[in-house]
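Can you give me the bound-state structure? Components:
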Amino acid sequence: MDDDIRPGEVAVTPPAATDAGLVFIGRIHTPWTVRGEAPRQGHPDGPVCRIDVFEPWIPALDGLERCARIEVIYWLHLARRDLVRQCRASDGLVRGTFSIRSPVRPNPIGTSIAELVGIEGGVVLVRGLDCLDGTPLLDLKPERKPVVPPP
Amino acid sequence: MDDDIRPGEVAVTPPAATDAGLVFIGRIHTPWTVRGEAPRQGHPDGPVCRIDVFEPWIPALDGLERCARIEVIYWLHLARRDLVRQCRASDGLVRGTFSIRSPVRPNPIGTSIAELVGIEGGVVLVRGLDCLDGTPLLDLKPERKPVVPPP
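Here's the bound-state model for the whole set.
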């Protein structure tokens, strides 16, 4: 089973996740339906993925069409949340959870920078995601501005 | 009051934020204690800020010391969550919430890329944050790998 603990992994009994609550504001549709199929990190040449934004949030998209690249924040709804040390599938080494970008983390929040393909109504098309089909959407924002070195 | 609605802003009645729950895994200490004082975006030459990670998550930091830059994810605990159109303070224009990086959003999650200064026990020192003192921490991860163009 995907959720078995591997040798060297360490689970804790986490505090109840009741410090703040999230609202799913949309759903992300990608070609990947099974864990292990999705790429390790999205690529700007990857397939076009569809983000369906729910009401009442659709008017909040106004102006996003002017951004070439957007930050997509989502909830990794299938991930366990109790591992502090985990085994990275790609190399079998055990590492602290915060030192890898695995979906398994105390708050399984994923972030990607995606290339905007288009927006129509409540549908946002992007390239560069790596999450599973059906992933709940938490937020969309313009990419951070690049850091300008001081003159 | 900071939380007043300005002309052109649009509030909605949001669904209850009960789709998923968060656990605060630490607290961020910065020099900025009042909204309006914090920079609009963190800068790698900014002041050193202290992130206190709580138990039982401290062992999850193991290996993070090898990352020069880390992604810091936090909860913008003072932000209202119901505006779909809002007025950006810097230029007074009204825009859709998802087209600006304001703290006011349905899920007020902030993300920054910070330069790692050092880690000692459960304390992580970084430069490049822009959040208020006392901001709850949600996650730490290595910066995304840069996109490599195909050969």
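A couple of observations. Chain A touches chain B through 61 residues (CB under 8 Å). Residues 79 and 103 of chain A are 6 Å apart (CA to CA).
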